[in-house]
Design goal:
22% helix; globular
Length: 535
């Protein structure tokens, strides 16, 4: 339903060890701008990127797509409000590097950066890459909403692209106006979303399907049951735990794709126990990650290095100097003993270690509720940590995904730092390690003072990490940028703000009724325009 200037190739279309030029594809732009084709120009310490835009593209409400949409997208994410946007944003990382956007005509937009910005392709990229200017301006002019997209009630009419399209009044979080092969029809909270064919789609052909309904499932086991009974024809993001039952379904094809990122456990470095590097390292040493991979994930993935920033499509920045901690609970026990954290031999907490203030080293572990695999992983982690004398408090009190990942302004657990240890997956699009910038750089720690901007939930703060990520931004070519990310990775591996468990896998499965499907590690780029229904 929604597109960016730049998109992403589907996994079957990628060569082995793909370069950026293989991964990124033109979407609403007619070509991917590079130094080779003249789209990227470096002058001294500054850089400009020029996008040539497609002609005859319409938003689903019938308005023309032009360079004004590109200009106002940049205005929204940074230029208009800087770091004081009335709409709550998880991050403005990257957008704050834009100095201006000029539009010499309706089909050309030039983005001028304050300095050389290597990850430029991750701006205006994917489904959040371009916003409709005419609706942004209505939001900015709304005297009640005062520019807040979550409060501006707009009259939307998607029927120009399909008579069945959405028509009504809603805030931005309740409608979609886009340029993609499908048009938003309805969203029934907690149940389903429906999209219908965009009859005005600009692409080489219109979508083959009349309609797609996205069914919201409470958990992956329900999703599996619905695929088994043909209630759904495609299941997204099953995770590896369900590979075995998926293999036993008739007329179902399973697609397994390694992600650019990892399932991990984040440590809140403000927690008095987890602030101690010795304890964090002991936790990493004591989790039997290979057992987790072998028993819960059928051996289908691997244990990553001590930081996941150069996995998958981002492997171009991987370096053998980054360590991978071995499973060694004996070494963990020795380190804790040497630090003075002795095992208590009596009392209610017998068998657990005492901290320097006499309290028992005990932490809460949370993950997304209703995820069977993660709940199994929680049990193993608690057991492994008990083996070295660290208590994981049970019963687990897992929040919903919406609560765990919610924005700072809405009380999200991660970005308000209201956790001790949090288990979840983080992956990056397009193999771009700069996408981790918001998660590790010190000025990206969400606080009340900065309006909750950033995704650095662990409180990681290391000048070497900051410098590495910033160095990776200040070159254009991958070869020139690589050393910056190696330096950042070294700092993160030394700090251990998280315990990477395994390289995450995307597991999708579809029935024989669905034809034309191609898998993608980023489900936003599944090729729905080519899907068709088999008889």
């Amino acid at each position: 339903m929604v597109e960016g200037l730049i998109g992403m190739a589907n996994s079957p279309d990628l060569p082995k060890n793909p370069k950026a030029s293989d991964i990124y594809t033109a979407q609403l732009a007619t070509e991917v701008p590079t130094t080779d084709n003249g789209g990227v120009k470096v002058t001294g310490t500054k850089m400009s990127v020029t996008y040539k835009l497609r002609h005859n593209v319409k938003w689903s409400d019938g308005q023309a797509f032009t360079s004004k949409d590109v200009v106002d997208t940049a205005n929204f994410f940074w230029l208009k409000y800087k770091d004081n946007n009335p709409t709550p944003l998880l991050s403005t990382s990257g957008w704050d590097q834009i100095e201006s956007v000029t539009a010499p005509d309706d089909f050309t937009a030039t983005v001028n950066f304050k300095s050389i910005y290597g990850p430029y392709l991750n701006l205006f990229f994917g489904p959040e890459g371009v916003l409709p200017s005419h609706l942004l301006n209505l939001t900015w002019n709304d005297a009640t909403a005062k520019g807040d997209m979550t409060k501006a009630k707009l009259s939307i009419d998607n029927t120009p692209s399909n008579p069945a399209g959405f028509k009504g009044t809603a805030t931005w979080d309740k409608f979609i106006v886009g340029t993609g092969p499908f048009t938003f029809k309805e969203w029934v909270s907690g149940d389903h979303l429906t999209m219908v064919r965009n009859n005005n789609y600009w692409g080489p052909h219109k979508a083959y399907l009349d309609e797609i309904t996205v069914k919201f499932e409470p958990d992956t086991n329900t999703e599996l049951a619905d695929l088994r009974t043909a209630t759904v024809d495609l299941g997204i993001d099953f995770r590896a735990a369900l590979l075995s039952p998926l293999a036993h379904l008739d007329k179902v094809t399973t697609v397994v794709l390694p992600d650019s990122g990892a399932e991990k456990v984040d440590f809140n470095l403000k927690n008095k126990y987890l602030a101690d590097l010795t304890i964090r390292k002991a936790i990493l040493q004591s989790i039997d990650r290979q057992k987790m991979v072998d028993t819960l994930l059928q051996g289908k993935t691997v244990i990553p290095p001590d930081t996941p920033i150069c996995l998958g499509l981002a492997a171009w920045c991987a370096d053998p100097s980054i360590p991978t901690t071995k499973y060694d609970p004996a070494a963990a026990k020795t380190a804790l003993d040497n630090a003075g954290y002795k095992v208590q031999t009596s009392g209610a907490d017998k068998g657990y270690r005492a901290f320097k203030d006499g309290t028992t080293i005990a932490v809460n572990l949370v993950t997304t509720s209703g995820n069977a695999l993660r709940e199994q992983q929680e049990v193993q982690i608690a057991s492994d940590l008990k083996g070295i004398g660290i208590q994981v408090i049970t019963p687990f009190k897992n929040p919903t995904a919406g609560k765990l990942f919610g924005a700072y302004a809405s009380g999200g657990v991660l970005y308000n730092h209201t956790f001790d240890m949090a288990q979840y997956t983080n992956t990056v699009p397009g193999g771009e390690p700069d996408a981790w910038y918001s998660g590790y750089v010190s000025d990206q720690i969400p606080t009340q003072a900065n309006g909750g901007v950033g995704q650095n939930d662990t409180y990681e703060s290391n000048p070497a990490v900051d410098a590495g990520f910033k160095a990776g931004r200040t070159k254009v070519s991958q070869s020139d940028r690589k050393q910056g990310y190696i330096d950042a990775a070294k700092g993160l591996a030394a700090d251990i703000p998280e315990a990477p468990l395994y390289q995450q896998l995307t597991v999708n499965a579809y029935s024989s009724k669905l034809g034309g499907y191609k898998g993608n590690v980023d489900f936003w780029f599944n090729n729905s325009v080519d899907w068709y229904a088999n008889s």
